[in-house]
Amino acid sequence: MELVLEKEGIKKGNKIIIVDSKKVLKSKLNDKEYKVAIAKLKTDYLVDISVLDEQKYVALLNVKHQEKNRKLGAELVDKFSERTFLYDCSNNSKGISSFLEGMMLKDYAFNKYKTKADFKHKKVILISSNVSLGNIQELKSLVSSVFQTRDWVNEPVNKLTTNQYIKEIKSLKSLGVSVEVFRKSKLEALNMGGILGVNQGSHDEAALVKSEWKPKKSKNQKPIVLVGKGVLFDTGGINIKTGNFMNDMKADMGGASTVLGVLKLIATQELPVHVIVLTPITENRINGKELVPGDVIKMHSGKTVEVLNTDAEGRLILADALTFAQKFNPLLVIDAATLTGSAYRITANHGAVIMGTDEKNIKALKKAGEDVYERLIELPMWEEFEEALKSSIADITNLGSSEGQAVCAGFFLKNFIDYPWIHLDIAGPAFRNTESCYLPKGGTGFGVRLLYQFFKNKFVV
Ligand code: BES
Ligand code: ZN
Ligand code: ZN
Predict the structure, then answer these.
(1) How far is Cα 58 from Cα 72, in angstroms, rounded to an integer?
(2) DSSP secondary-structure letter at 416?
(3) What is the pLDDT of residue 22?
(4) 3-class secondary structure for 328-386?
C-alpha cells in the first residue's frame, strides 16, 4: 500500500472520515461539507454514507479495543478506490495507528507465480494531525517485515531452496545485520548430529545461519537469542506424512521466517537491543540415506537421542541450535517453531502455545500478545511428561507420549538449555487455509508483531 501523509484539507474523490466518538460524527454531519444522508448503519461502528455520486464512509474508532480498529481498517480496504483520502477527525492517535495497521496488513497478495495477476495495491492519502511521519514510517517497516515473513512461508521448496533462503537472509546485511553461515563441514566439526541427522535425507546440504543485530547503544549487556525452526519442507521422513497432512509443509520454516522477520524490523527501526538469531535450515525428506526409526544420533551437546519418529524432526534441529546459543551467554532465548500438530489442535489459527522457564518474560510476552492480538496460551511443564522421553538405549528419545505432544516436544528442548528460555509453538497460526480479515490465506507472519512489541515494551520507553 502506498500511504502518504498530508496536512491539507479534504479533496474530491473517495473519502473516509475517521472519528472517535458519535459526538464528533454528529458535529461533522452538521458541517456543510459533511451534510450527508446516512444510508444505512452497517455495524455499530461503521456508517455508510452516500453523497450524490460520491462515496463517503465514516469510520468510528474504538477507544478501548485496538483489534476492532485493525479489523475496521482491513474491512474498509475492499471499498477503497485506487486512490482514497482518509480524513482523520479523531483525537485518538493509538486508534488511528491500529486502523492504518489493519488496512496495510490486508493489502497483501502473493502472486509472483501467477502469469495474470489481478491484484493492485491501493494508494491512500491520509490527512491527519494525530500521526507523525515517524509513526507512518514505523508502520511501513512493520508491515514490510510481516510481508517478508509471509512471502518466505508462501514460497514452495522448489523455489526457496536452502541456498536461495541463505541468499535472502544475507540481504539483511544492508540494514547493518551481520550474517554468518555454517555449512555441512562446519556442522560436522561441531558434532551437530541433530541438524545433520535430519539433513541426511535432504536434497540440499544443511545450514545453521547466525544473524546478529548489535547496535552501539544496546540496552542489554547479554544478548537475547532467537532460534527458529527452518525445515523448508517436512515430508515426515521415512515416517512419511499420510493423507493431506503433507500439503502445507512448505510452511515448516515458519519459525525461522518469523524470527528473521522480527530481526529485519528491529534493524530497520534501529532498536537499541542486541539480538542474535539462529536458524537451522534443512529439508526433512527421503532419498535412501535418511534416518530410520531406532537410529541413535549424537547431538551438539553430547547427549544421545534415539530417533523413534523421523517426523519429530523440528526438535532435533532446534536442540543443536539451542545448545549453540549457550556460547553467547544469553539473557534469554526464545525459540519459535511450527513444532507439533498437538499445538495446532489446541489453538487452531487463533493463537500460539507458549511454555518455558522464564516466568517474568512469559508474562511479558503474553501481554505483548494481547497488545497486538497475537495471543498466547501457556501449557504446563508437568514433570510426568518428561518421563515419557526415556529411552532404553540412549539418553532420551525424540518422541514422548502420543498425548500432550506439544509439551513433550517442549520437554525435549528443555534438555538442551541452561539459560532462561521460552518456547513458542506456532504450528497453528503461522499458516492459514482460509483468509480472515487482515490475515491472508497461506503465511500470516504471526509472531513478528508479537516479538517486536515484546522488545519495544522491554527496551524502548
Ligand atoms: N511440522 C510438524 C508439525 C506441524 C503439524 C506443523 C501441522 C504445522 C501443522 C512436525 O514436524 C511434526 O510432524 N510433528 C509431529 C510429531 C509426532 C510425530 C511426534 C506431530 O505433531 O504430529
Ligand atoms: Zn515432522
Ligand atoms: Zn516439522
Answers:
(1) 11
(2) T
(3) 75
(4) HCCCEEEEEECCCHHHHHHHCCCCEEEEECCHHHHHHHHHHHHHHCCCEEECCCCHHHH
Distances in whole angstroms, Cα of residue 324 to Cα of each of 79, 122, 260, 300, 419: 50, 44, 18, 8, 12
What's the CA angle centered on 58, arms 52 and 62, to 5 degrees? 170
385-400 per-position pLDDT tens digit: 999 999 999 999 999 9
Taking only the tens place, the pLDDT of each residue in 443-453 is 999 999 999 99
Strands 54-60 and 14-19, bridge-based pairing = parallel
Q: Is the CB of 332 under 6 A from ligand 1?
A: no
CB burial string 236-246: b at 16+ within 10 A, e below: bbbbebeeeee
Q: What are the distances in angstroms from CA 118 to CA 110, 114, 434, 441?
A: 11, 9, 19, 16
CA dihedral 308, 312, 317, 319 (to 10 degrees): -70
DSSP per-residue codes, 123-146: EEEEE-SSS-HHHHHHHHHHHHHH
Least Cα distance to 209 among 223, 193, 230 occurs for: 230
Q: Ligand 1 pocket, 349 CB below 6 A? A: no
Is the separation of the CB atoms in 48 and 42 below 8 Å? yes
Pocket test for ligand 1, best of 157, 241, 311 (most atoms within 8 A of CB): 311
CA–CA gap between residue 275 and residue 335 (Å, rounded): 13
What lies within 8 Å, CB to CB, of 452 at 6+ separation is 142, 145, 262, 265, 266
**Which residue would you say has higher pLDDT here, 96 or 48?**
96
Residue 50 pLDDT greater than 50, yes or no: no
